[in-house]
Write a structure and sequence with these properties.
Layout: H1 9-25, H2 46-68, H3 71-77, H4 83-99, H5 101-112, H6 114-137, H7 144-170, H8 178-212, H9 215-235, H10 249-262, H11 270-281, E1 291-293, H12 310-314, H13 326-344, H14 346-352, H15 358-364, E2 366-367, E3 369-370, E4 373-374, H16 382-407, H17 415-446, E5 457-460, H18 465-489, H19 495-526, H20 542-566, E6 572-574, H21 578-590
Parallel strand pairs: 2-5
Antiparallel strand pairs: 1-6, 3-4
Helix pairs in contact: 1-21, 2-7, 2-8, 2-9, 3-4, 4-7, 4-19, 5-6, 5-7, 5-19, 6-7, 6-9, 7-19, 8-9, 8-16, 8-18, 14-19, 14-20, 16-18, 17-18, 17-20, 18-19
Length: about 600
């Protein structure tokens, strides 16, 4: 005899409550604690863990900004380098610092895991900052060789710290839980807000101390701050969710290309691929990753690596370099699919590099006094951070809900739409910077100050405010958009690498900026001696350089629109588990 459950709502409610309670016990995405044990959803992760991580990032960014924001001034005033040489050295250092995250990501994803990579890199980071402080304080260590060694040690520590900490913060939110997934999107916004709070303090307080008190104290405070960051990180250990290392992503990528090379002449008929696909779908994904990629038609030549032949069947080796699973191939396709968007973001990285170099040198020539107080030129970068701090909560709490209702997208607008909006605003920032520089040079000529590089031009430094604020607005869209995009679209086993790829945009952008400066300097100096870059900025032509960047950005923006329209977002499905079914049932009943 069947029981009509519709007449027993209390029974149904109790059954659902039991299922929901069970689903809440363990996190279902394979997360573990530091000792490899399963973790409880109610006691770990989410905001209780991510707030520790955001706090660490605030402290770390303060330390990093204390080095980067005024580095060009230290190199010109203390190390007596030329403006062009100092700008190139800063760009190269910044570029290396932004490329080293690939090393940190490889170590974290392959061997140590994110937690231990963060801890180890924090110690290296702290050692570099202590050495920078000693170099600036002690005459015996005050050499350019010691100083550059110490700042590159800082770059090495930052290379492990930066990608792992952000990916580790995003790991605290379960992708397959609908509530936590929304919180993960908000995490990236507040993460970047935390970056800006730390940067804001660094470029204001520390720049003032370095200019008016002393470089030893100005570099010593970042060292103390970094030690505090390490302490905060360790304090949150019991709340963290960990993802186990998944093996070398580089090895898996190389494996696919080697197998493809061996099978170059092999046919990829539907029947042959279906055999491999069927076998692959029966596999249990390793290390807690539950999402499997659906088959795609992109880069179809890589599908050859999945076709099994007689040599493969006879192979007894642990790793058959002639054969890959469908999922391994699809993961490599996903990584390759990101490369066009990555390349189209590089010009934004070039533009981004100007705020800590030529913008600062511009401001140093202008009237910086408010009453009897003189504003450090480097501290004007704080307006970028202020703009971001003010706008990100508005974006997250007002813009996203409105856009979500209009577009139906849970993030309001897509990743690529967000990135493209920031690119457009960055073009405007370069146009405004060029117009402001034209005005600055005109005032210098009108007051007979062209041949007086150390004289203060009677033009307020607040004339630079629009270009700094436009930079901030552009960052709200492009910088945060890139973080989300590269983290989300990377395979589950390469999330740290995704953050490293985002950071490399800034690194390669800094290298490209150095190359563009070098080339334009040589070309411009050959044409009637009117060099664009000379130590006397009143005789230089930074406005020409800004117009050049605006033009390159406009061309790049058109290319980006085409590539964004062609891009296909990652298409993955979950391995269905009891917990997922429970979560899904709970969501349906709640609605």
């Amino acid at each position: 005899m069947e029981v009509d459950h519709s007449s027993h709502p209390v029974v149904l409610l109790e059954m659902d409550e039991m299922i929901s309670t069970d689903a809440l016990l363990d996190v279902g995405d394979g997360s573990v604690d530091l000792h490899g044990r399963s973790v409880k959803r109610a006691h770990t992760g989410r905001w209780k863990a991510s707030l520790f991580i955001i706090g660490v990032e605030i402290a770390e960014r303060l330390a990093y900004a204390g080095i980067l924001s005024n580095l060009v001034t230290y190199l010109t005033d203390v190390m007596h380098e030329s403006t062009a040489a100092a700008a190139k050295n800063v760009n190269v250092w910044s570029g290396v610092a932004s490329m080293l995250p690939f090393v940190g990501a490889f170590v974290a994803d392959s061997y140590l895991g994110r937690y231990w990579t963060i801890t180890l890199s924090s110690i290296i980071y702290l050692m570099g900052l202590i050495l920078v402080t000693l170099s600036a304080s002690l005459r015996s260590l005050n050499g350019i060789g010691v100083f550059f060694f110490s700042i590159y040690l800082v770059a090495l520590g930052q290379g492990g710290h930066k990608p792992c900490l952000e990916a580790f913060g995003a790991d605290q939110f379960e992708e397959d839980d609908p509530v936590e997934k929304k919180h993960k999107s908000s995490f990236f916004n507040y993460w970047y807000c935390g970056i800006c709070i730390g940067t804001l303090i660094g470029v204001t307080v520390l720049s003032y101390i370095q200019d008016d008190v002393g470089w030893g104290l100005g570099f010593g405070i970042p060292a103390v701050t970094m030690s505090i960051a390490l302490f905060i990180f360790l304090c949150g250990t019991r709340f963290y969710r960990h993802k186990l290392p998944s093996g070398s992503a580089l090895t898996r990528i190389i494996h696919v290309f080697v197998a493809t090379f061996h099978k170059w002449n092999v046919s990829t008929s539907h029947q042959e691929k279906r055999k491999v696909a069927a076998a692959t779908e029966r596999e249990v994904l390793k290390f807690g990753s539950r999402r499997q990629y659906l088959l795609t038609d992109q880069f179809r030549f890589l599908d050859k690596a999945t076709v099994e032949d007689e040599l493969d069947r006879e192979c007894k080796a642990t790793r058959n370099w002639r054969l890959c699973t469908v999922q391994e191939v699809q993961e490599v396709k996903a990584v390759l699919g990101l490369s066009p968007i990555w390349m189209s973001c590089l010009i934004f990285g070039v533009v981004f590099a100007q705020s800590s170099t030529f913008f600062t040198k511009q401001g140093a020539t202008m009237d910086r006094k408010i009453g009897h107080f003189e504003i450090p030129a480097a501290s004007f970068q704080c307006f970028i951070s202020l703009s971001i701090i003010l706008l990100l909560p508005i974006y997250d709490r007002i813009f996203v809900p409105i856009a979500r209702n209009l577009t139906g997208n849970e993030r309001g607008i897509t990743f690529l739409q967000r990135i493209g909006t920031g690119m457009l605003i960055s073009i405007l920032s370069m146009i405004v910077a060029a117009l402001t520089e034209i005005k600055r040079i005109k005032v210098a000529k009108d007051n007979g100050l062209v041949d007086k590089p150390n004289a203060t031009i009677p033009l307020s430094i607040f004339q630079l405010l629009p270009q700094y604020m436009l930079f901030g607005i552009a960052d709200v869209f492009t910088m945060v958009g890139m973080q989300e995009y590269f983290y989300d679209q990377m395979p589950d086993t390469m999330k740290t690498l995704g953050i490293a790829v985002y950071l490399s945009v800034l690194g390669v952008g800094s290298f490209l900026s150095s190359i563009i400066i070098l080339v334009t300097e040589k070309l411009s100096c050959r044409s009637n001696g009117s060099c664009w870059f000379v130590d006397n900025l009143n005789k230089a032509h930074l406005d020409y350089f800004y117009w050049l960047l605006a033009s390159l950005s406009a061309i790049n923006f058109c290319i980006y629109i085409f590539l964004a329209n062609c891009y296909k977002y990652k298409n993955a499905q979950n391995n269905i588990s009891y917990q997922e079914e429970s979560c899904r049932a709970r969501t349906i009943l709640a609605s």
